[in-house]
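Hi U.,

Before I forget, here's the chain from the pilot set. I'm dumping it here mostly so it's searchable later in email.
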Amino acid sequence: MPCKCHASTFAKLILKLMKRFNAAKTRVLYVDQSAQNLLTFKASLDSQFDVRLASDDECDMDIVHRESIDVVIADNNLPKKSGVQLLQELKSNYPEIGRILITCNKDINVLIDAIQLAGVYRFFVKPYTKSELLQIIKNLKSDRKKWSRDDVLARISST
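Structure:
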């Protein structure tokens, strides 16, 4: 068991590294079957975030495997499975990635599934504004930083 002075130094080092890591641009993966929606999304948010696009729900998991994605935003209307199913799979394999669902209808069952099964951070009904989406992504990232910082501190203090 390390002494408390080493644990404190280690905690400060971890927090410093986390701060440096979190300063990087948030990497957002947007999944939608519409090429126009994909292009519009990229044009709107590429200056604030490191945007990745996927038009097929099979391709997006390849991107997640290959790259360090922070947030996945998925349209619910995908060709092979719903956005809820995609985000549920993502939650099982990559629980640390933030999940947002976008849909064109206000079906309460989709909302319930999105929250209960996929653990989405937010649910949007089209149309939405760029400023709404920007704020939600920033809030999600900020909450994730706080959660991971608190988790690191809790784990270190319990040793």
